[in-house]
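Bug #77: duplicate submission created two jobs. Keeping one. Sequence:
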Amino acid sequence: MYVAIFMGQGGWLFSMGCYRIRDKIRAIGAAAEVFRYVDVAPAASQIAAYRKAGHKIALMGYSLGNTTASYIQTHTAIDLLLCVGMSELAGPNNHAVNHAMTRRSVLWAAPGVLSRAGKQLGFDVIHEVQVPHLWLDFDDGVTNGLLSEVKQCLTS
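Kept job's structure:
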């Protein structure tokens, strides 16, 4: 399995938890890589290479990184879409789940304009959490949920 993780605006400074999540995903046996939200072409290249090699594909977005993850799944077959803290400020750049291309989709939403979007976009599962936006990628409940989804996809 390959997991492409997309950081939010501000990159590493505001999305440090994405690297922790990447390491935890690698520890359970999946390949994982962190991208900036603007890295659509490099991510698409990696996704295509892993898909060609027979890997399952998961996309994880955090904050503005959800715009990239949700965009890619509109036209690329993936097994798992994981979105954490989708921002209302991204507006139409938050794309609806394309169920023809995406096998399973999960959203973690929190209070506030930075984290409460996406509930109307067709996710299979929506988790409502009470975590501040800038802590979502560090929260153990969110992280354990992400890892559980990846493990389930790995074994299915």
